[in-house]
């Protein structure tokens, strides 16, 4: 097998950690000796052990003289675990193939330099485009201080998410709803607005997929007027709930949610709404790398208007609700098409009775 094929194998392994390794990146590693795979690893839940450590333990003595394929530059700094670059050197690995450099200031080329200084052959840039897509959340948090954001929409043909009376369950079919749970599982957090939290009383967890680590549930609510008897409040002690609020949130609401175990973030209010960019920056500073937004319409509009949406996952059901229905996206105040951010379709598929299209910001 060529370097590309082994690296794609490593990328597949790395994806197993998406949604469970934050603030660390989800990395994959494959160790090959004389054409035979002798070790495989991926970053474990919580970010440790690292992929290289897991693969080296599996390879044992077979790692000596082998090639290691790693999807992100091995770390070179001492943290809670020793540097992976040192581990590769100590194991006697002869060659390291790396997809991407790590922009973290604690690494940022130092891992590669350390390997080369020790006499290992280092090849970089193999499957770099694919690795960049997998690591977009980690890269964006390190470079811009914000997590990658996926906006999920589930609408009728005519872009409605509910009837005029508010009925929305269910526009899409069972398989589409199951796919949404799978999408939640590969993100660090699920995000909704206060209006959705009040109207739907959602749990926002991953169900029926056997995941070991649930995503953080995040709600943007200026005044924290989310029912204290709702599902989020009742389960805050079991699965993390983070609330982003404005400076005018009542002190008793703040005290109540803090008492339930929620983590609170205060951000500024701009134009009568929470500053969406400041909210995402606060989540990034707290370590989140991948956020999955499930609405509602006002929050979707705020995120789009602030140009914070990296990907859109659009489920379209085979029905029309009409102009009196509730739009999936709130007002954007656009007077000209040129003002609208364009997205490019990257993938389309049928999910049960519904269509799913994936769109990426260009």
Automatic annotation (TrEMBL):
Gene3D superfamilies: Cytidine Deaminase, domain 2, Dihydrofolate Reductase, subunit A. Binds 1 zinc ion. Its EC number is 3.5.4.26, 1.1.1.193. The active site is at residue 52. Pathway: Cofactor biosynthesis; riboflavin biosynthesis; 5-amino-6-(D-ribitylamino)uracil from GTP: step 3/4; Cofactor biosynthesis; riboflavin biosynthesis; 5-amino-6-(D-ribitylamino)uracil from GTP: step 2/4. Zn(2+) binds at residues 50, 75, 84. Pfam families: dCMP_cyt_deam_1, RibD_C. One of its GO terms (molecular function) is 5-amino-6-(5-phosphoribosylamino)uracil reductase activity. Keywords: Hydrolase, Metal-binding, Multifunctional enzyme, NADP, Oxidoreductase, Riboflavin biosynthesis, Zinc. NADP(+) binds at residues 154, 170, 196, 200, 296-302. It catalyses: 5-amino-6-(5-phospho-D-ribitylamino)uracil + NADP(+) = 5-amino-6-(5-phospho-D-ribosylamino)uracil + NADPH + H(+); 2,5-diamino-6-hydroxy-4-(5-phosphoribosylamino)-pyrimidine + H2O + H(+) = 5-amino-6-(5-phospho-D-ribosylamino)uracil + NH4(+). It comes from the Bacteria. Its cofactor is Zn(2+). Substrate binds at residues 168, 184, 204, 207, 294. One of its GO terms (biological process) is riboflavin biosynthetic process. In the N-terminal section; belongs to the cytidine and deoxycytidylate deaminase family. In the C-terminal section; belongs to the HTP reductase family. Converts 2,5-diamino-6-(ribosylamino)-4(3h)-pyrimidinone 5'-phosphate into 5-amino-6-(ribosylamino)-2,4(1h,3h)-pyrimidinedione 5'-phosphate. This is Riboflavin biosynthesis protein RibD.
């Amino acid at each position: 097998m060529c370097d590309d094929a082994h690296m794609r194998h490593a990328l597949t392994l790395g994806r197993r950690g998406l949604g469970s390794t934050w603030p660390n990146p989800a990395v994959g590693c494959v160790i090959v000796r004389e054409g035979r795979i002798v070790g495989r690893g991926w970053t474990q839940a919580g970010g440790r052990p690292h992929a290289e450590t897991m693969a080296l333990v599996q390879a044992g003595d077979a790692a000596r003289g082998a090639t290691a394929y790693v999807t992100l530059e091995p770390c070179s700094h001492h943290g809670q675990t020793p540097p992976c670059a040192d581990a590769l050197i100590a194991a006697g690995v002869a060659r390291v193939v790396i997809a991407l450099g790590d922009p973290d200031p604690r690494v940022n080329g130092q891992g590669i330099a350390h390997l080369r200084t020790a006499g290992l052959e280092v090849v970089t840039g193999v499957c770099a485009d694919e690795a960049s897509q997998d690591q977009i959340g980690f890269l964006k948090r390190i470079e811009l201080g914000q997590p990658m954001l996926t906006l999920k929409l589930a609408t009728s043909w005519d872009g409605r998410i509910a009837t005029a009376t508010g009925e929305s369950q269910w526009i899409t079919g069972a398989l589409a709803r199951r796919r949404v749970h799978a999408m939640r599982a590969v993100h660090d957090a699920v995000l909704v607005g206060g209006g959705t939290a009040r109207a739907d009383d959602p749990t926002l967890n991953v169900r029926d997929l056997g995941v070991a680590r649930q995503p953080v549930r995040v709600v943007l609510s200026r005044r924290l007027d989310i029912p204290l008897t709702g599902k989020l409040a009742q389960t805050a002690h079991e699965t993390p709930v983070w609330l982003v609020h404005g400076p005018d949130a009542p002190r008793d609401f703040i005290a109540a949610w803090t008492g339930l175990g929620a983590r609170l973030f205060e951000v500024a209010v701009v134009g009568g709404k929470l500053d969406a960019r400041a909210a995402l920056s606060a989540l990034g500073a707290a370590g989140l790398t991948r956020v999955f937004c499930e609405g509602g319409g006002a929050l979707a509009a705020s995120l789009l208007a602030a140009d914070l949406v990296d990907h859109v996952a659009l489920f379209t059901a085979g029905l029309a609700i009409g102009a009196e229905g509730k739009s999936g996206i709130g007002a954007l105040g656009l007077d000209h098409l040129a003002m609208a951010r364009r997205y490019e379709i990257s993938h389309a598929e049928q999910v049960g009775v519904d269509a799913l299209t994936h769109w990426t910001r260009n």
